[in-house]
Amino acid sequence: MLNVRRSVGLVMTEATNIGARVVPALLVRDMAETLDFYGKLGFRLTGYYPKQSDPVWAEVQRDAVTLQFHTDAPSGTPPNPVCSGTFYLFPASVTGLAEELRGKVAFAWGPDVMDYGMREFAVQDPNGYYLAFTEPAYR
After folding, report:
1. Using CB atoms within 10 A as the burial measure, which of 17, 18, 94, 128 is most buried?
2. Residue 65: how many other CB atoms lie within 10 Å
3. CA neighbor of 67 nearest in space, from 92, 85, 41
4. Checking DSSP bridges between strand 57-62 and strand 65-70, what pairing results, if any?
5. Looking at the predicted structure, is the pLDDT value of residue 4 above 70?
6. Per-residue pLDDT tens for 18-53?
């Protein structure tokens, strides 16, 4: 692990580790449709509020990947789901995962070897969010 030291004025300080997890909390249009889609990807429901049959907030998990969803936009944020990027996940095997998911959900692209040397495929969820599953193509 990289140990970073920064100079603050005349005193050297060590950078604080910010942790090993990030949990996106994503605005969704339709919670039931979203949870159904992520269920097809193999995620399981691990939390909800206020009730499981009609949550306004939910959390799903598969292995070490956790995502949270909410139906009400937090104050000061856009009123509709929006993300200008892609969430990259690194499974044990892109080929194996593609075989597992083929026919359950449509692939947005791949599996292909990309120009930048990664083998990947992606799915787009009902809210427009892209999840790409990737690994080095040449090991």
Report:
1. 94
2. 19
3. 41
4. antiparallel
5. no
6. 999 999 999 999 999 999 999 999 999 999 999 999
Average pLDDT over residues 68-89: 93
The domains of the chain are located at 21-72+80-136
Residue 83 CA, distance from chain mean position: 12
Q: In what order do the strands lie in the sheet with 65-70?
A: 25-27, 65-70, 57-62, 44-49
Closest by CA to 120, choosing from 83, 82, 87, is 87
Query: Which two tokens mark 139?
Result: 């090991």
**Dihedral sign, Cα of residue 98, residue 102, residue 108, residue 110:** positive
Three-class secondary structure of residue 49 per DSSP: strand
Look at domain 21-72+80-136 and name its CATH class: alpha beta
State the Cα–Cα distance between residues 98 and 120, nearest whole angstrom. 9
- 94-131 per-position pLDDT tens digit: 999 999 999 999 999 999 999 999 999 999 999 999 99
Closest CA to 53 of 31, 34, 68: 31
132: helix, coil or strand?
strand
